[in-house]
Design brief:
A: 664 residues, MetI-like fold, 30 helices, globular, B: 308 residues, alpha/beta, D-Maltodextrin-Binding Protein, domain 2, six-stranded mixed β-sheet, five-stranded mixed β-sheet, 13 helices, 11 strands, disordered N terminus
């Protein structure tokens, strides 16, 4: 009995997961038409190489003329202010939404209250069982929609609401980030172990008290670090503000890339990287100040490991394990939190001032108050203008094609031979013949909704292949990226490296970190612009873009997970090579965390792949934006429904698998 | 005593919010009742020129000219998206918009009688698109697009239009292609891309990213000779009607009449007028009627296959 229980605990799940990944890869290659010509065809490869060469040469000599640098600086400030404002608004909106969407906060049922049988478990999933559960389901749907709708669409909808200007872009950004933050907040709150706050409940605390005094403090560290991480991403991705009259770095890079002005692209990417690095540094400072590192430094090994564990589980991207320990006395008054709060308030005030009065980048260099249009939101007239988009809510379902709805129309479709007739050539009993499936698929393609569903294959395929490539690359790059293995290896391997060896390793470390910073600091969309320019538009360009960005993001969090391991864990392999220690001790220890990040990244890659469709990769995103821009809102509505459905499915899947558990 | 405080604070906040809402509603209601012209006119344009600064500069000049003529400040707001400019006009967030034929038809379909035309350029009633090819394709000029489709068969060439919603960079080239070749570009070329604007199409064909493309003649004509040599014309389409300066009808007949007069009066005598005409490659602006774009409305409503 005991033996079999132990046997059952064997981690078979990971083999199943790997098998699933393999199957997904196969499906991805089968589902979409991959044209590797850009990489295999010698002539086109030479062309691409020439373009990359031209770009690298130009990147080495960026356009640093004072006029252009000044222009880029203006764009940087516009991007920064919109991103800060957008994130701040998003935090305010995400809190109540996440409180609604978190089962632990909103429904607040104690686990096992209705029994533990399969029926009870099913009952817990039923949204109709109580008003609170219904509210919870509704809030989750709202956050999925906020996340799924591409931000340029929010921007266009907001044009009707508040008019043209940079504020519209910032608000669009805010809506999109709200969806992301609310999802993560609610997952973090849900994943706090119930036994840790059971006391608040047993003392008579209601749902609100349980949240305020139990759940919120227990998850606050992760909530904070994720908020800061999103703020960094927002700063990088603030390209959307350009779509409706705000300028910003993103739209300018897109324009210059298409125009082949590589020296200017170099300057702009340099500014993007500087912005990313600055945001990194500031958010790390804030994080360190707010987190009270003293307790972590002095709190013994087990505490440090637990802290490192749940820190890294959130993809918290910083390398504080490498930072020198703060030799702080316990008696020092906690000045840090004030400093950090001050920094945040200062950044917020600056961005408000810039949006309202300081932005002179527009026409004639005259300052204009871009905040004023926000008052429009208070008028009923502005909301009435939303009716312009009403048709988005009436998706085209093309029922006539499958013989439903108006019989006359269905008959007419049948007459034209444009209706789905599954049994035309093959009956249901032919299911074992491949030709039958092909025929059925061709029949189904006459139905618009089926074509919509099929178009989702392209973003999914891009996300699967891109994520797998990125994960593989990140595993390879983490070794030179890890300070434990490049700088501190002597402390566990027992070797005494010669000075030149040490120098070589430091160089390796620096090179790996620079690669990761560049791969991460340039957003997916910009990588896509570059890859399209190099390899031509298509799946390959989109996949490479996703893989590159994934590589950068994952190397950082993978590396942290390794560097957060205490060095003495590696001591048992004393005498083995560093590489063997990495492969046989470090990787297995952090594998679980790595896979969790990998899945997180896959989820965000699917959404990124939908957005990449907008810039010429094809598939769902392209079809959606095409129909939206032609004001065929009914059709766009169907595609939008598919995007939302995809997001909901992946989200519910990850919640079901409990991949994001904090207190595991 | 203590428990009274939060309630009174909440009450204060509530009343403040109510006041703000009432004030803003009141202002709007007043405006709507009086049918007064807005204090500031906003003009926007489809971003058919990829260079935002160039557009700001030149449409800013047009805005200044119109503003001086009608006595109301006019401001140009730049957008990076064709659909955003139509949305802005249709929802009253912009009052005047420089639109292409397709976007005019789209706005007409959204707005109905609310849309009116201020005028168009002398060149807009005989507009032409060019099909261009990279010299590496070895293509000479073709007599019709069926010949082009035949030449492209099996070559694995990709093709680029401009913006999806562009008339001269997508709609009309596509229509002529389908009329003459009897098939869609998607079936002939390896991939069909939308590069966003005319000058970008020319750049991408010139550097070989896409071997073939289509764009409007004015954008090709104003490029420099080196670029023209790397993206020569292989076919010129028949002429068609294109751009218009459209406005919202609710500006009132008086203001619309003054705007029309101001537009027709644009000439080379003022620095603004000269700048606008030079940028738009026009001799002058002429009168036009919304009926001249009805053909496009019919075309769109016929459910023509536009590739989506």
């Amino acid at each position: 009995m005991a033996a079999s229980a132990r046997y059952e605990r064997r981690p078979l799940g990971h083999f199943v997961a790997l098998l699933a990944v393999l199957l997904a890869l196969l499906a991805a290659f089968a589902a979409a038409e991959w044209d590797w010509g850009a990489l295999t065809d010698a002539e086109r490869r030479a062309q691409a190489a020439a373009r990359i060469g031209a770009w690298l040469a130009a990147f080495a000599r960026p356009d640093l003329s004072p006029a252009f640098v000044h222009h880029a600086w203006d764009l940087t400030l516009q991007t920064l202010s919109a991103a800060i404002l957008g994130t701040a608004l998003a935090v305010l909106l995400a809190w109540p939404l996440a409180m609604g969407a978190s089962r632990a906060v909103c429904v607040g049922e104690a686990r096992g209250a209705e029994g533990t049988g399969p029926l009870a478990r099913l009952w817990r999933r039923l949204p109709l069982r109580s008003p609170a559960a219904l509210l919870c389901a509704a809030c989750r749907l709202v956050q999925d929609i906020l996340r799924a709708v591409p931000d340029f669409v929010w921007a266009i909808i907001l044009v009707a609401l508040v008019g043209l200007g940079p504020l519209t872009g910032a608000l669009a950004l805010a809506l999109n980030i709200t969806g992301i933050l609310a999802k993560v907040y609610s997952e973090l709150w849900d994943s706090v172990d119930e036994s840790r706050y059971a006391q608040v409940r047993s003392l008579g605390g209601g749902r609100l008290a349980t949240f305020l005094y139990g759940i919120r403090p227990l998850a606050s560290r992760n909530v904070l670090s994720f908020t800061l991480m999103r703020a960094e991403c927002a700063i990088r991705n603030a390209a959307v503000i350009g779509a409706v009259g705000g300028g910003g770095l993103g739209s300018e890079i897109w324009y210059q890339v298409r125009f082949g002005a590589w020296d200017k692209v170099g300057t702009l990417i340099l500014f993007t990287l500087l912005l990313t690095l600055a945001a990194d540094l500031v958010s790390n400072t804030i994080r360190r100040q707010l987190r009270g590192d003293q307790s972590r430094q002095s709190g013994g090994a087990s505490c440090a490991v637990a802290g490192a564990g749940d820190a890294s589980r959130q993809g918290r991207p910083e390398g504080d394990a490498v930072a020198p320990p703060i030799a702080a006395g316990v008696s020092r008054p906690p000045f840090g939190p004030w400093l950090a709060t001050g920094l945040v308030v200062l950044a917020l005030l600056w961005s408000l001032w810039f949006m309202g009065w300081g932005n002179r980048g527009g026409e004639d260099g005259a300052a204009r108050n871009h905040l004023a249009p926000a008052m429009e939101l208070l008028s009923g007239e502005a909301w009435g203008k939303l009716r312009f988009f009403e048709r988005l809510l009436q998706p085209e379902l093309d029922l006539a094609a499958i013989g439903l709805g108006d019989p006359a129309k269905a008959a007419a479709r049948l007459e034209q031979g444009k209706a789905v007739e599954l049994s035309a050539t093959h009956g249901a009993l032919d299911f074992w013949r491949p030709s039958a499936w092909l025929a059925w698929q061709q029949e189904l393609q006459k139905w618009f909704v089926w074509r919509v569903v099929e178009s989702a294959a392209i973003p999914l395929a891009i996300a699967v292949v891109g994520t797998v490539l990125g994960v593989a690359g990140a595993i390879l790059l983490t070794y030179p990226h890890s300070a434990s293995f490049q700088l501190h290896a002597a402390r566990f391997s027992g070797e005494t490296p010669a000075p030149w060896q040490r120098a070589l390793r430091a160089l390796q470390l620096a090179a790996a970190r620079a690669t990761a910073v560049i791969a991460r600091g340039v957003p997916e969309v910009m990588w896509a612009f570059l890859c399209i320019a190099f390899f031509g538009p298509g799946l390959v360009a989109g996949t490479l873009a996703i893989a590159l960005h994934t590589l950068g993001v994952l190397t950082r969090v993978f590396g942290e997970a390794v560097d957060n391991q205490p060095l003495r864990r590696f001591e048992p392999t004393c005498g083995g090579s560093r590489l063997a220690t990495y492969g046989l001790v470090a990787v297995p220890r952090v594998w679980r965390d790595w896979m969790t990040y990998g899945f997180f990244q896959f989820e965000s890659n699917v959404r990124a792949a939908v957005v990449l469709g907008l810039v010429g990769v094809g598939g769902l995103g392209f079809q959606f934006s095409f129909n939206f821009e032609w004001f065929r809102f009914e059709r766009a509505g169907t595609y939008l429904l598919m995007i939302v459905l995809l997001t909901v499915l992946i989200d519910r899947g990850s919640r079901l698998l409990k991949l994001s558990r904090v207190g595991r | 005593m203590h428990h009274h405080r939060p309630a009174s604070r909440r009450g204060f906040l509530l009343s403040a919010a109510a006041l703000a809402v009432a004030a803003s509603l009141g202002v709007n209601a007043g405006e709507a009742l009086a049918q007064q012209p807005p204090a500031r006119l906003i003009i926007t344009a489809i971003p058919d020129d990829g260079d935002a600064d160039r557009m700001r500069e030149n449409f800013g000049a047009l805005a200044r000219h119109l503003g001086q003529a009608v006595g109301i400040p006019v401001e140009y707001m730049h957008v990076e998206n064709y659909a955003a400019s139509v949305t802005a006009l249709a929802t009253g967030r912009a009052h005047v918009a420089w639109l292409g034929a397709v976007t005019t038809a789209q706005a007409r379909m959204q707005m109905g009688e609310q849309l009116t035309i201020l005028g168009c350029r002398d060149i807009d009633k005989g507009f032409v698109s060019y099909f261009i090819a990279n010299p590496a394709t070895g293509l000479g000029t073709v007599s019709d697009l069926g010949e082009l489709a035949k030449a492209a068969q099996g070559k694995g060439w990709s093709f680029t239009f401009g913006s999806k919603s562009s008339t001269s960079g997508h709609m009309m080239p596509r229509k002529y292609f389908m009329d003459q070749a009897g098939t869609t570009p998607e079936k002939v070329f390896r991939s069909v891309a939308y590069s966003g604007s005319h000058d970008v199409v020319m750049q991408m064909v010139a550097d070989g990213t896409h071997p073939l493309g289509a764009l409007n003649y004015a954008s090709w004509d104003k490029a420099d000779d080196a670029l023209k040599a790397r993206a020569p014309i292989v076919y010129k389409t028949p002429p068609y009607t294109n751009y218009a300066l459209a406005a919202r009808a609710d500006l009132g007949p008086d203001l619309l009449a003054r705007l029309r007069a101001a537009l027709l009066a644009v000439d080379g005598s003022t620095p603004e007028g000269a700048q606008v005409l030079k940028y738009l490659k026009a001799g002058k602006f002429i009168e036009a009627d919304i009926g001249e774009w009805q053909g496009y409305v019919d075309l769109l409503e016929s459910g023509i296959d536009i590739g989506g």
